[in-house]
Amino acid sequence: MKIKRFVAPDMRQAMRQVRDEQGPDAVILSTRRMDDGIEIIAALDYDEALVREAGFGIDAPAPKREEAPIRAQRDEAERAARIDQARAATAAAVERAAKAGFAGTGNAPQRQSSAALAASVADVVRAATVAPANDAAVNGVRAEINNLREMLEVQLSTLAWNQMDRDQPLRARVLREMTRLGIDGDVARSLSAELPPGMTAEQARYLPLGILSRHIRTSGRNFDTVGGGVTALVGTTGVGKTTTIAKLAARAVLRHGASNVALISADQYRIGAGAQLEHYGRLLGVRVFNAHDATSLRNVLLQLRGRHTVLVDTAGLAGNDPKLQQQFETLRATSDVRVCLVLAANAQAQAIDNAIRAYAPLAPQSAILTKLDEAPLIGGALSAVIRHGMPLDYTTDGQRVPEDIATADARKLVCLAAQLLKQRNDEPDDAVLAERFGLSPPAMA
Question: Is residue 248 domain-shared with residue 342, that is, in the same domain?
Fold first, then answer.
């Protein structure tokens, strides 16, 4: 029997020494924490009588063999190997990233692109996800790697953005102006990709606005040629559906008469919703009907077959509201209903994007952009409709009925975005620009 003492800075290294020298069959006789680390007494070819004679205490009970000692040691060894593997992969990735970053700051023709820098960060991401485990030591190392990854992303994004600012100053200027307009990073990157490579400074001022205008889809519906029919306005709470319906109804009454216009209230959740619509109906001389489910909606629409314009007001529901599915089922009761999504321009860009995704199961044919007069910037709203290819019917910019509504015009929206920008003097921080445009999203995936 071979008994040996091992001393190491921590338990992991001590167990590794035992495994390397005595193999998986070694038995741990004792462990003790010392000033300089951990002491382990281990034995190979364990014999109880010899252990007693060796001085571990004749009358003392024999050391207990650990439950499944081989398995425990093997697990410890595997955890140590995972830690070493993650650290080695991270160190290699950091070295490659540093080399790529230094290459990107020089003047050599072989300068690395931002995609190469992003690939180096991707290596760190992979290193941070090596063999996930619940072990505290492994999770601690992974947390360190994740922190390092975030630091690298910031540094490499800054390097890539500075490189673009030097090599393509006009493109960087366009991205900066689109950020000031409030255009989201992914949309701004996509639009700037359509710019000609040899554009002049004058073109860099006006071409981006033209490209932005071209990507804003409009339905072409207007108050003179609108074909009428049944239109249901849907959207989240507070976007102005009921007021917009009143404006549309007033326009329809002026052109077709009150007898050819009808309103339907399908909002059974909000207190006073039906009363507000009935108030507008009395002012316009238009009858208001109620529909609380799919059956009642079908029955009401059968009564109104001869009307030129029928407008349906729905409850404002958030995307995570369980009642939203019930609203979908009600509106799907008939194929004659044209669904129009109402979006508030003064909402956050992410909120607008979430609303479009939430109501996507209804397949809205178009959208109405409201509250333009309350929005400090409309770039976020324009980004959402561009991203989802949502055509716009109308825009509204006030509470007056029926004056504050207009047919959607892409050029006017872009001009409004530029006018709002002139009222602001803030400049986007370089750190924000680097985060948005320094590393391409595909390379970071």
Answer: yes
Angle, in degrees to the nearest 10, between helices 11-22 and 69-105: 110
Confidence band of 108 (pLDDT split at 50, 70, 90): very low
CB 78 within 8 A of CB 134: no
In this structure, what are the phi and psi dihedrals at residue 309, rounded to the nearest 5 degrees? Answer: -130, 125
337-344 and 27-34: which strand pairing? Answer: unpaired
Write down which residue in 204, 239, 267 finishes a domain.
Answer: 204
213-265 pLDDT per residue, tens: 999 999 888 765 556 788 999 999 889 898 999 999 998 898 888 889 999 88
Asked if 221 contacts 407 with a C-beta cutoff of 8 angstroms, the reply is yes
Of 102, 97, 130, the closest CA to residue 115 belongs to 97
pLDDT digits (tens, 9 = 90+) for 144-165: 676 667 667 767 777 777 877 7
Residue 292 sits in the same domain as residue 362: yes
- Residue 351 sits in the same domain as residue 273: yes
Q: Are residues 265 and 376 in the same domain?
A: yes
pTM of whole model > 0.85? Answer: no
Taking phi first (over 0 means left), then psi (-120 to 50 degrees means alpha), and beta for anything else, what does residue 45 get? left
Q: How many domains does the chain have?
A: 3
